[in-house]
Amino acid sequence: MDRCESTLALMDFEQVEQDDYSSGYESTPSDTESSAPTQKPQYDTLVPTSYNRDPVKIKEKMSYRNTQALTEQLKVISSIPELCDVTFDVGPEHVKVHGVKAILGTRSRVLYNLILKKQKEAEFQSKADKKGKQKKTTVKSDKVTIVVKKYEPEDFRKIIQFIHSGSVDINSSCVAGLLCGASQFGLDDLERACWDFVNYSVKSGTISKIIPTAKRYSHHKTGQRLLEKFFSYTQQHVDL
């Protein structure tokens, strides 16, 4: 960013010392001052605060935000394993989804506790291995691996993407998984957005597109609520 400079002219320090800075308010002149033919000129300039007993208050702060660029960059993190210290092993095909411990733990209390638990388990296992193999030296790793069995890999990847960047695209093929993940991991804003999408689908008559994926999450409490909403909608239209 280009440097921002003030256009106000500053008085030279020598000039300030010479002219004995005045506050600008009028005062009653003494006898010696009244006899003087001329009055000292008033300088309408800004004096540096370090030499000014009553400095002029100037706002010197500028706020700049570029959240769009930040969001796009944070989305990329999970696709670079070298930058991540958490790996999720998702589904029967063991698809790897990566994340950053600090971001995951900050955004979700549930994930924070889960990561902490896995770290303690890894430390305990490392100590046990050292006792069993005294001669072999092991390299300590801060990386954590968490097995995830009850989510579709693409749905879980989107959940992790949202946690990192605060942005995700919701559609009928992923809303059920996102809704369950938002409920489980305490992502209230994402959960509200998913329910808004479901309610819109009900009003527009396109909720039937959500059902195939919702059935895959029938083991989840929130998935059951979603199916109940669909059956209620279907029953109302049958009665009509």
Outline the structure in words.
This protein has 240 residues and is mainly alpha-helical. The protein has helices at 13-19, 31-34, 67-77, 101-107, 109-132, 153-165, 175-185, 188-204, 211-215, 221-239; strands spanning 86-90, 95-99, 144-148. α4 (101-107) packs across α5, α7 runs antiparallel to α8 and α7 packs across α10. It is flat and about 65 Å long.
Head-to-tail CA distance between termini:
63 Å
Structural class: mainly alpha
| Number of strand segments | 3
Q: What topology, given as strand order, has the largest sheet?
A: 2-1-3
Percent in strands: 5-15%
| pLDDT < 50 runs, ≥5 residues | 1-36
Mean pLDDT: 78
Shape: flat
Radius of gyration based on Cα positions: 33 Å
- How does the major sheet shape up? 3 strands, mixed
Give the topology.
Elements: H1 13-19, H2 31-34, H3 67-77, E1 86-90, E2 95-99, H4 101-107, H5 109-132, E3 144-148, H6 153-165, H7 175-185, H8 188-204, H9 211-215, H10 221-239
Parallel strand pairs: 1-3
Antiparallel strand pairs: 1-2
Helix pairs in contact: 3-6, 4-5, 6-7, 7-8, 7-10
List keywords for this structure.
about 240 residues; mainly alpha; three-stranded mixed beta sheet
In short:
The protein is mainly α. The protein has helices at residues 13-19, 31-34, 67-77, 101-107, 109-132, 153-165, 175-185, 188-204, 211-215, 221-239, and strands spanning 86-90, 95-99, 144-148. Helix content is 49%, strand content 6%.
